[in-house]
Structure to design on (806 residues):
């Protein structure tokens, strides 16, 4: 028997294909002309102003909703997350009547939803790891030997994480030339299609999180485009990993989709190639059945599913604390590029064009890597019975290099 | 003709070999029983309470000295740094008479001097890079091909940076076993002798710093021990670099020695093996003539000089912004392990013991790597005519693993 579909008093939230129905309720930070950034929740084509709601006594965020990022609210912990979600669900229900401080999304500027504390990026799609490994190191050393035993990750740069819509400047950098190193504008600018998990609590230095504890610490997810300069990367990345090739910018979507909204879409991930050590074992499926893909200048280039991934965010976070490394509210954990096995499922141009050898056509033009002026957009949604949990847009356009 | 040696009214500051004479004036954060952490300056065996000084109208820190970290003061910029240094030099001079809020260092607890925003670690000693390269990859691939062309670095974890004296827990982790991966307490726990540069200003995303601009952005330096789990590192570090092997803890010294104090000791670094690209060229010597070394359980194990390094902190910082990556006040930039060419000049046990093959003797006991209960201390000082610019202690003792 199917439960009656929950509908919202905000009519646009009930339209088929709307990213932000009442089942979603993602958190973000917005401002309107002449007013300061504050916390809000997306509903249909509108934003519910949480700071105003709290001022009216409609919801209790312990005073954090007037802050210009969600870190304060997130730090309040899961019981508060649950209580606020329940309150918002009542306030926005079809039969609710209380006057609400709604703002049209068209009139709002969206900001980075959190102060990103630290940013870690993983490498958890076997298809991507193998495809990129072949291109960088050849087929014999494509998949690193530890890849099926641990989530491989590296620390990225938090200061260059920006919100959707922020232009990204093509980087200058050092690359390998025929007669020694060359100083040049990047010639192989790429995207990486990822999901980013937002850490919602602190852990203690010297202690480890189990996978279950790690999952309980995740507040929610955003789309994440880890812009990558492949020519700079190839020259710099051995032996200490990618550095400036990944520091030009990382774009995230403005709305944090909560674990609670994604819960009905829980899914198993890729098939295990070998048993995992106990500290990485998951008792229940750790992924989501989530369509995810990307566009270039409006044309859909690839789509796949988050459940092609091999390690979940909870496993990545547990591994991150293996050594006793403490996690903090506002840490951002990139899933790694999400690529399915087929070309039209790849989450990076490096894979899709075989490092530039097989161009793609975009609106009639040929591309191997990203040109100045090109706009990349990411999208993701989980489709339920009669509603969709969407992430909204995550876009960035490339500005010419400052030579 | 030699200038008359500046002396302090704090007698202990004038003792030969004192780390904190009036020429030094390093900044830190301290508390005493029942009082909150606040900013201070080390002078001899005492701390000048800067919050109290400001309350008495003796010095102007724009209200930042009452904060529990120096980020606020540092963000005020170089003209303010210079003005406060000049004021402190007058207040602490031998002939000054104003009553001063001095606290005995013996009665104080020293705290992390800054909120570490992000932590980046480099790899700038050719001796270390070559020695470690031989051990990890063999002599043919020891020095990466780009090493003489760019400062190789990686993003470390800021949340695990702790102040001198904080115990460090031996990490658990995944290592390569004979029949697949093994979950174990680290068996090859090591130190890394480094200097850490504190970034003193913000840079703009999408713009680059010249080496000169980068140097102007550095507030000062601390000692830095980048504890390293070599067995975990060997299994995890390809292709994305060290991760959990470096996240167990990074110890820094509590006193930030300013650029101004080190200026008289400016020195050239290691000889260049090839010309650098213009963006990395330095117009003047970028290093310091600074004795630096480490102890184990009180026994001096190695000493060398910071000027063996190949890339300066200013060059590292300039390279860090190459891609447009923005820097922030409180970013910490590790120099990389400082090793001279000889065994008694090596800044890590990995090099000193040839990955455990050649044990060393410490107080009559044999060591290859660090045992539980062992204490590692770093030290550094620049010796002028009749005074010493010292860094004070930077120690950490190892606790047994939580299995």
């Amino acid at each position: 028997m199917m439960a009656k579909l929950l509908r919202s008093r905000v009519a646009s939230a009930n339209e088929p294909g709307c990213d932000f129905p009442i089942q979603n309720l993602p958190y973000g930070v917005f401002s309107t002309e002449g007013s300061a950034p504050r916390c809000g929740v997306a509903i249909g084509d509108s934003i519910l102003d949480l700071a105003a709601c709290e001022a009216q006594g409609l919801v209790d965020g312990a005073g954090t909703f007037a802050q210009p990022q969600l870190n304060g609210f997130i730090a309040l912990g899961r019981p508060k997350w649950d209580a606020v979600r329940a309150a918002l669900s009542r306030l926005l229900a079809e039969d609710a009547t209380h006057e609400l401080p709604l703002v049209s999304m068209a009139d709002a500027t969206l900001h980075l939803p959190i102060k990103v504390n630290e940013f870690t990026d993983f490498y958890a799609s076997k298809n991507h790891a193998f495809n990129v490994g072949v291109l960088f190191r050849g087929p014999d050393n494509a998949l690193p030997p530890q890849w099926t035993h641990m989530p491989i990750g590296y620390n990225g740069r938090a200061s260059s994480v920006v919100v959707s819509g922020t232009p990204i400047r093509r980087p200058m950098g050092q690359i390998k030339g025929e007669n020694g190193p060359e100083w040049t504008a990047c010639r192989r600018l790429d995207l990486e299609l990822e999901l980013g998990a937002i850490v919602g609590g602190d852990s203690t230095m010297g202690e480890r999180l189990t996978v279950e504890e790690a999952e309980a610490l995740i507040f929610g997810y955003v789309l994440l485009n880890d812009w990558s300069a492949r020519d700079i990367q190839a020259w710099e990345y051995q032996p200490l990993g990618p550095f400036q090739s990944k520091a030009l910018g990382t774009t995230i979507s403005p709305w944090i989709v909560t674990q609670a909204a994604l819960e009905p879409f829980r899914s198993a991930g890729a098939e295990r190639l070998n048993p995992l050590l106990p500290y990485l074992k998951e008792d229940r499926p750790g992924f989501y059945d989530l369509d995810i893909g990307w566009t270039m200048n409006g044309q859909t280039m690839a789509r796949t599913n988050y459940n092609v991934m091999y390690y979940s965010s909870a496993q990545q976070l547990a591994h991150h604390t293996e050594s006793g490394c403490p996690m903090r509210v506002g840490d951002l954990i990139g899933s790694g590029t999400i690529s399915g096995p087929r070309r039209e499922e790849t989450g990076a141009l490096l894979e899709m064009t075989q490092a530039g050898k097989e161009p793609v056509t975009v609106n009639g033009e040929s591309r191997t890597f990203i040109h100045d002026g090109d706009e990349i957009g990411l999208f993701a949604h989980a489709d339920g019975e009669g509603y969709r949990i969407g992430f909204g847009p995550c876009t960035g356009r490339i500005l010419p290099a400052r030579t």
Chain B has two domains: 11-111, 119-399. The longest strand of chain B covers residues 218-226.
